[in-house]
Amino acid sequence: ALRLSYLRAGGHDSAILDQLLHLQVEATALEKGTTGLRRGRKMESPDTGAREVDAALMAVELENRRLEDELLALKIRKERRADVGSWVAQQRAEELAQLQAEVGMLRCHTERMASRLPPAILPPPVAPPLPP
Questions:
Q1: Which pLDDT score, from 0 to 100, does residue 42 have?
Q2: At what angle do helices 48-116 and 14-38 cross, to 10 degrees?
Q3: Nearest one of 60, 55, 68, 69 to 17, comparing CA atoms
Q4: Residue 4, C-beta contacts closer than 8 angstroms, at least 6 positions apart
Q5: Does the global pTM surpass 0.85?
Q6: Burial of residue 33, with CB atoms counted within 10 A of its CB: 0-12 exposed, 13-18 middle, 19 or more buried
Q7: Where are the domains of the chain?
Q8: Digits of tens for pLDDT over the chain (132 positions)?
């Protein structure tokens, strides 16, 4: 649960993920040890070959969990980037729409103002100078 909440919160530091995984292994080992004692069974020591297989299996399981955590972290980062990208695109589209509306209003305003102005009064044409 800690590992998942860390990943969902955006954590991706491999050292922290390794520590969380190590804590999980310790907790699992403690739980197995205490459940065995609670049931009143004596802990039987398996032979060396079985211990090596168990250790190898545990190592593979831990590596699988680590890789799953890494995949989850990558998926979360990818989703966040996609969310940010779509948010930026949406913001740009809204800004563009607002600017287009403003341009339309300005055009309409200038057309109205042009129709209200009286015709331009030009100064009389200047005659060319007389020859000497």
A1: 46
A2: 130
A3: 69
A4: 72
A5: no
A6: exposed
A7: 1-37+48-116
A8: 777 788 778 887 888 888 888 888 887 777 777 544 444 444 445 566 677 777 778 888 888 888 888 888 888 888 888 887 788 888 888 899 999 999 989 988 888 776 776 666 777 778 888 887
| Ordered DSSP codes for the chain | -HHHHHHHTT---HHHHHHHHHHHHHHHHHHHHHHHHHTTPPPP---HHHHHHHHHHHHHHHHHHHHHHHHHHHHHHHHHHHHHHHHHHHHHHHHHHHHHHHHHHHHHHHHHHHHHSPPP-PPPPPPPPPP-
| Other beta carbons less than 10 A from residue 42's beta carbon | 7
Joined together, the tokens standing for residue 28 give 């699992």
